[in-house]
Design a protein that fits this description.
- The protein is 32% helix and 18% strand.
- The N and C termini lie far apart (25 Å).
- The protein is α+β, with helices and mostly antiparallel strands and 82 residues long.
- It has a 3-stranded antiparallel beta sheet.
- Pfam families: VanY.
- Its EC number is 3.4.16.4.
- This is Serine-type D-Ala-D-Ala carboxypeptidase.
- One of its GO terms (molecular function) is serine-type D-Ala-D-Ala carboxypeptidase activity.
């Protein structure tokens, strides 16, 4: 499951405070921030701090590693970053 987190105002959650909270706490609930800053060459996407993916129990290990899902699981990303 993946989704874009939208605030009560109907806009994507992009503010720095909320983004930092997601990076720090999403894994506690089984989620990872899907498209991390600096991983565009691996994921094929620009950073999207509001885009979460549920991965379950592995979320903490993935988040702690600092790897993208592509790096962690060893698969190729898209080619959409441009």
């Amino acid at each position: 499951m993946a989704f874009d987190l939208i605030g009560t105002d109907g806009n994507l959650v992009t503010e720095a405070k909320a983004s930092q909270w997601l990076l720090k706490h999403a894994a506690e609930y089984g989620f990872v921030v899907r498209y991390l800053n600096g991983k565009e060459d691996k994921t094929g996407y620009m950073p999207e701090q509001w885009h979460l993916r549920y991965v379950g129990k592995e979320a903490k290990e993935i988040a702690d590693s600092g790897l993208s899902l592509e790096e962690y699981f060893g698969f190729s990303g898209g080619d959409y970053k441009d």
